[in-house]
């Protein structure tokens, strides 16, 4: 641990403490995405929510990049960002919105609680990282628990909402890996900003085309929820999260992510009025425990070949 991490800032708090605080703010924002989406789809088309949130955050990103005069990414970076557009901008939000039409947000929070493990698995396939046998055993165990939970909640069969959630997890895991790889070359906030800006030629026209025919008929709660996922889930949350990782250290602050499932469960009860029973909380705690153990399992980096 470096001395700078514990050095007091102008507020009197150490950088580590501020980093943990910002990290939690980011996770709290992300934890509200499922409940807000669940509320939004009560009055808004899920496809409009998908492209609308990306268009709104893309315009905010464009303004920020212009003000800060950031240099355009190179051709190779743009090609990687195109993969992120498919997976993060369209894949995950779209599949999640479709899932929220049929399953509760609390249910989705438990299923998506396995994201850190699926992301690590994607990294092993895409970046050549080599997780240990212990990691793979925990990944299989975590997946089994989530599948069993989904089967129990759907009366013994896999509901279409669960299929959407599993596909959403795969999509966003791929996107996270490619965007994280780009974050070695530019700040994380700039990566997501460029991804959203590059998607604007698609998202903005589609958002205008899918705009509700009668906006006044849409409930106020749905519009507020749409604004939340547009401004906070896809924009502000990334700033708090990435700033927290920088200030407090990636390894330390990233552990706060384990709290996201419980934030989603709490907000599902408050925002959506869902009943979160003891069994759901118990399964969520088990998934989080497995994820925590999996994150501590050894993952070796790919060794470049000589030559």
TrEMBL record:
InterPro entries: AA-Vitamin_Transporters (IPR050638), EamA_dom (IPR000620), EmrE-like (IPR037185). It is found in: Membrane. Keywords: Membrane, Transmembrane, Transmembrane helix. Residues 18-146, 160-291 form the EamA domain. Its main location: membrane. PANTHER family: EAMA DOMAIN-CONTAINING PROTEIN, INNER MEMBRANE TRANSPORTER. Belongs to the EamA transporter family. This is EamA domain-containing protein. It comes from Afipia felis ATCC 53690.
């Amino acid at each position: 641990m470096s001395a700078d991490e514990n050095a007091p800032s102008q507020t009197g708090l150490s950088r580590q403490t501020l980093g943990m605080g910002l990290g939690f703010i980011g996770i709290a924002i992300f934890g509200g995405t499922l409940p807000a989406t669940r509320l939004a789809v009560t009055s808004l088309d899920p496809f409009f929510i998908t492209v609308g949130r990306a268009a709104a955050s893309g315009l905010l990103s464009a303004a920020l990049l212009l003000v800060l005069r950031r240099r355009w990414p190179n051709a190779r970076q743009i090609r990687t960002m195109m993969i992120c557009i498919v997976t993060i901008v369209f894949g995950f939000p779209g599949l999640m919105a479709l899932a929220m039409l049929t399953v509760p947000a609390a249910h989705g929070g438990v299923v998506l609680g396995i994201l850190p493990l699926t992301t690590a698995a994607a990294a092993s396939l895409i970046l050549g990282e080599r997780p240990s046998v212990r990691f793979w055993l925990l990944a299989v165990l975590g997946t089994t628990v989530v599948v069993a939970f989904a089967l129990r909640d759907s009366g013994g069969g896999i509901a279409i909402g669960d299929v959407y959630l599993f596909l959403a997890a795969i999509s966003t895991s791929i996107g996270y890996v490619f965007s994280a790889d780009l974050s070695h070359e530019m700040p994380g906030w700039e990566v997501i900003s460029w991804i959203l800006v590059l998607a604007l030629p698609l998202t903005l026209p589609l958002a205008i085309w899918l705009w509700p025919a009668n906006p006044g008929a849409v409930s106020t709660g749905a519009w507020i929820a749409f604004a939340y996922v547009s401004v906070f889930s896809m924009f502000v949350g990334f700033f708090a999260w990435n700033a927290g990782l920088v200030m407090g250290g990636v390894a330390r602050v990233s552990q706060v992510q384990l709290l996201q499932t419980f934030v989603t469960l709490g907000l599902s009860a408050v925002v959506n009025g869902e009943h979160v029973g003891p069994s759901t909380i118990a399964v969520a705690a088990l998934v989080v425990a497995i994820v925590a153990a999996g994150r501590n399992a050894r993952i070796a980096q790919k060794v470049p070949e000589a030559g």
